[in-house]
Records
---
Amino acid sequence: MGEPVVEQEDVLADVSDDVLVQRAVDGDTDAFAGLIGRHGPQLRALMTRLTGSQAEGDQLAQETFYQAWRELPQLEEGAALRGWLLRSGTRLALTHLRSTRPSDDGRPAAAASGDLAEADVPDGRRARLAALSRVLGALPENDRHCWLLREMGGLDYDEIADQLQLPVTDVRGCLARARASIYTRMEEWR
């Protein structure tokens, strides 16, 4: 009997980001694929939520990983990769949103609806996600972006301020308003 086949993904699951980044910098495409597998789903989800489009979210996540491949040698600490990817992706998404044609209400057309991706969502949660999408779509742009970057992207206040080019006090205010609005408008779903 032959030895069991071990998937490359399984082998890389226990390897730290720091080691995978170093291997990727040395040209190991399997190590980079492991980083994509590890961080891709969260990055895609954040990009999709920021743009309101699965296709645009996928494209921006792909562009972020392409940029990461080129710039990995400049990353001083591989353990900081997750935050670096989220910041880079957010910059790309915000640049994309700023460059899109505004809708009737002045917000970028792609982000005006605030739609959340519904792929692989059980039916019981679909209505709640639709309600949250409507609430997010009704928020002012800065409030919505701050909330998404904090709650979906896991960025801290300083990182959000840097991404949106706002003072930290404004970020705190945007988050407070967004949370209050979401809390009030989602009352029936609790």
Note: The CA atoms of residues 5 and 11 lie 11 Å apart.
---
Amino acid sequence: MTRLILLSFRLHGALLGAGNRLTQGTGLSSARWQVLSAVARSVQPMPVAWVARDMGLTRQSVQRVADDLEAAGLISFQPNPHHKRAPVLLLTEKGQRAFAAITAKQVPWVNRLAEEAKVGEIETAIDILQMLCRRLETDQSR
């Protein structure tokens, strides 16, 4: 398990580096792309706290990135009918264009990464990572 954890640290660093290369020339960093992607892919508008929870990050760190994305005109904060003090995040037209441009670069990249992997192997890896996330989240409450 320790080897898996250490390898996940290495993978995290490699993914951040790859994300920075993919976003080069877009005005986005990996962190901005991650938050923009979370907003773009959500089935319903979410407040910052929900985005942070889904990403496994602190609300404050996601708030800083969301503020940067708003300043760049990529997202907007809109009233939340369920909570007056927690606006929801929505992509602007500019944000939709930026997300589409990055996705156009990301899809071929991710397909190259997956070339030799079998669907069952990927699903097993997802199951293991989800189990570890659940256990780590449970451990935090102890």
Note: The mean pLDDT is 92.
---
Amino acid sequence: MNLIQTQVCYVCGAQVYPDQWSISRTTHFIDLYACKGCGRYICDELHTRRKHEDVTVVREGMRGHRYHYTSRYCDLCSPLYQFGGIKGVARLFVVAGTIVVGLLYYFHH
């Protein structure tokens, strides 16, 4: 019951259903219906601005498992998807600020 209240599109409030399915024993599809940039749930029909599919292969002995991840970006994170969305830009600012403060401290003392 708690998931029903939390797994809704943050813009319109429509229910989203994170999905995971397999075609065979080695091919898996995973779609969290969450923005990769900010982590909030978004609906597919109205508020997914950019959708991309990533494929990773994990070897297990002679077999390999293929995982198809659907990456989504909302309206806010879509222009910044190269940097990882809003959270990625915030990380870049923190790293740049730390370097600048470190250099100022180093040259001041």
Note: The mean pLDDT is 92.
